[in-house]
C-alpha cells in the first residue's frame, strides 16, 4: 500500500534546541480532567476538596443538569476549616462516610485536592490511606492533586492514573495495556483493530470498573494513547511494565506507526498491519484530503496548553501540508514525544512552558494563518485579526485513530474556511 505521507525528515526535530519559558501561564487547572475521567470509570467517584469556586468550575465545565446523579462533588472548605477552627480530618471523614452510605455503588473514591496541601490544611494522601483502610475491601480510596497552581488541565488525568498504578494487583501474564482515557467509540475502534491484527490480550487504563482484572507486572507492555502521561509512565515502569515507544495515534500516519510498533512487540509484521488497516487508512486519507485543501500552505502557531501540541504539529504539517512557525507545549517529555519529534520537520521554534507576553510578541511578529491557543487568548487575538482554534476542544473531541482523522483536520480547517468566507462577504 502506498504511503500518503512524505518520508521522515533526517533527524526531524529531535536535536532542535528547546526554548524554555518560565513565566506567566494561562491554562485550565487539573480539575478539568474529572469531566472525562468520571465517564470512563463507572464505579468511581471524584470528591474535590476545595472552594466554592472549584465547585462552580466543575459544574460549568461538565454541564451537569439539576436532575442528574453525577459521580463527582466538592467538599467545600469554609472559613472555619481554613482557619483551623474545626478538625478538617473529622469533617472530611464525615463527608466521605455520608457519601459512601448514600452511594453503595462506589468502588473507587478519589480525593482530589484543588489547592496544595499547605493551602487546604489537609494531607489528602494520608487521608486516603486512612479512609481506604476503614472502608476496605468494598471501596478503594486514592488521592491526587488537581491544583491549577501545580498542574495544567491534562495533568489531572496523569495524576489520577499515576495514583491508581501502585494499587493495581500484580500479574505475570503477558498483556498489552492501552494507557489513556479515550471516548468509548474510539477505544472500541482501537481494540477492534488490535484484535484483527492479532495482538492480545489487551486491557485498558483507566478500566471501566475496579474489578476489571487489570494487573501490572514484569510481562506487561503498555502503549500510550495520550502524550501527557509522564507520571503514569514512570509509575508503570516502577511496577516492572515496559513502554512501547510510538507516535501518538492521531491521523493516518501516527495511527499506522503506533499500530506497527505494538504489533512488532508481539512478533507481528508490518505487512499484517497494512492489510488489516487498508480500508480505514483509505477512509482517513480521503477525509483528511478535504480539509487539507484549506490547510495546505497555511502557517501555524501552537501555544502551550494540552501537551498534544507536538503530535498535532506532526499531523498538520505532514498530512495536511501546513507550515509550523512555533510549537509550544507545557512539558516536553522526550521519552513519550521522541517518535513524534523525529517525524516533525526542522524549522519551527520549539518552546516548553509558558511566558504569555513573550509568546504573544513572537506571535504578533509572525502573524500566522492559524493560532491554536486557550480560551483566554482566543477572543483578544481574534479582535486583532488573527484566526484562532480553541485548544481545549482537542481534548473533549474524539480525535484519535483512523475514523477520527478527518474530524481532527476539520477542527483546524473550519476557522480558516469561516475567515475566508468573511473576507469574501466583506468584498
UniProtKB/TrEMBL annotation:
EC number(s) recorded for this UniProt protein: 1.3.7.7
Binding site for [4Fe-4S] cluster: 29, 54, 115
UniProt cross-references to InterPro entries, sorted A to Z: LIPOR_BchN/ChlN, Nase/OxRdtase_comp1, Protochl_reductN
Recorded GO MF terms: 4 iron, 4 sulfur cluster binding; ATP binding; metal ion binding; oxidoreductase activity, acting on iron-sulfur proteins as donors; oxidoreductase activity, acting on the CH-CH group of donors, iron-sulfur protein as acceptor
A Pfam family that the UniProt record links to this protein: Oxidored_nitro
Free-text comment on the cofactor: Binds 1 [4Fe-4S] cluster per heterodimer. The cluster is bound at the heterodimer interface by residues from both subunits.
Enzyme class: oxidoreductase
KW Metal-binding (keyword) present: yes
BP GO annotations: light-independent bacteriochlorophyll biosynthetic process; photosynthesis, dark reaction
Catalytic activity from the UniProt record: chlorophyllide a + oxidized 2[4Fe-4S]-[ferredoxin] + 2 ADP + 2 phosphate = protochlorophyllide a + reduced 2[4Fe-4S]-[ferredoxin] + 2 ATP + 2 H2O
Subunit structure: Protochlorophyllide reductase is composed of three subunits; BchL, BchN and BchB. Forms a heterotetramer of two BchB and two BchN subunits.
Family to which the UniProt record says this protein belongs: Belongs to the BchN/ChlN family.
Protein task: Component of the dark-operative protochlorophyllide reductase (DPOR) that uses Mg-ATP and reduced ferredoxin to reduce ring D of protochlorophyllide (Pchlide) to form chlorophyllide a (Chlide). This reaction is light-independent. The NB-protein (BchN-BchB) is the catalytic component of the complex.
Protein name: Light-independent protochlorophyllide reductase subunit N
Amino acid at each position: 500500500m502506498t504511503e500518503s505521507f512524505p518520508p521522515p525528515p533526517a533527524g526531524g526535530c529531535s536535536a532542535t534546541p528547546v526554548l524554555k519559558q518560565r513565566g506567566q501561564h494561562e491554562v485550565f487547572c487539573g480539575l478539568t480532567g474529572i469531566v472525562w475521567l468520571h465517564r470512563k470509570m463507572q464505579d468511581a467517584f471524584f470528591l474535590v476538596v476545595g472552594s466554592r469556586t472549584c465547585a462552580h468550575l466543575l459544574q460549568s465545565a461538565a454541564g451537569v443538569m439539576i436532575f442528574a446523579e453525577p459521580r463527582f462533588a466538592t467538599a467545600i472548605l469554609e472559613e472555619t476549616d481554613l482557619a483551623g477552627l474545626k478538625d478538617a480530618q473529622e469533617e472530611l471523614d464525615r463527608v466521605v462516610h455520608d457519601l459512601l452510605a448514600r452511594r453503595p455503588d462506589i468502588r473507587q473514591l478519589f480525593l482530589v485536592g484543588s489547592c496544595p496541601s499547605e493551602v487546604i490544611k489537609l494531607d489528602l494522601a494520608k487521608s486516603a490511606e486512612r479512609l481506604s483502610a476503614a472502608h476496605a475491601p468494598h471501596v478503594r480510596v486514592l488521592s491526587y492533586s488537581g491544583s491549577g497552581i501545580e498542574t495544567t488541565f491534562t495533568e489531572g488525568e496523569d495524576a489520577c492514573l499515576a495514583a491508581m498504578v501502585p494499587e493495581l494487583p500484580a500479574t505475570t501474564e503477558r498483556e498489552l495495556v492501552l494507557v489513556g482515557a479515550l471516548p468509548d467509540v474510539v477505544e472500541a475502534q482501537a481494540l477492534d483493530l488490535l484484535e484483527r491484527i492479532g495482538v492480545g490480550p489487551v486491557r485498558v487504563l483507566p478500566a471501566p470498573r475496579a474489578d476489571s482484572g487489570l494487573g501490572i507486572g514484569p510481562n506487561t507492555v503498555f502503549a500510550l494513547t495520550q502524550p501527557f502521561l509522564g507520571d503514569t509512565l514512570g509509575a508503570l515502569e516502577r511496577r516492572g511494565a515496559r513502554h512501547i515507544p510510538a507516535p501518538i495515534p492521531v491521523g493516518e500516519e501516527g495511527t499506522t506507526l503506533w499500530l506497527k510498533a505494538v504489533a512488532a512487540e508481539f512478533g507481528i509484521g508490518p505487512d499484517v498491519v497494512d492489510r488489516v488497516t487498508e480500508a480505514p487508512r483509505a477512509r482517513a486519507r480521503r477525509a483528511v484530503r478535504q480539509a487539507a485543501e484549506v490547510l495546505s500552505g497555511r502557517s501555524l502557531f501552537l501555544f502551550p496548553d494540552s501537551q498534544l501540541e507536538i503530535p498535532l504539529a506532526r499531523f498538520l504539517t505532514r498530512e495536511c501540508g501546513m507550515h509550523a512557525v512555533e510549537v509550544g507545549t507545557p512539558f516536553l517529555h522526550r521519552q513519550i514525544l521522541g517518535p513524534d519529534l523525529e517525524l516533525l520537520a526542522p524549522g519551527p521554534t520549539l518552546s516548553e512552558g509558558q511566558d504569555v507576553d513573550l509568546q504573544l510578541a513572537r506571535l504578533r511578529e509572525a502573524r500566522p494563518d492559524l493560532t491554536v491557543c486557550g480560551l483566554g487568548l482566543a477572543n483578544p487575538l481574534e479582535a486583532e485579526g488573527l484566526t484562532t482554534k480553541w485548544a481545549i476542544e482537542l481534548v473533549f473531541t474524539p480525535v484519535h485513530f483512523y475514523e477520527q482523522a478527518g474530524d481532527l483536520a476539520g477542527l483546524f480547517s473550519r476557522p480558516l474556511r469561516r475567515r475566508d468566507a468573511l473576507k469574501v462577504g466583506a468584498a
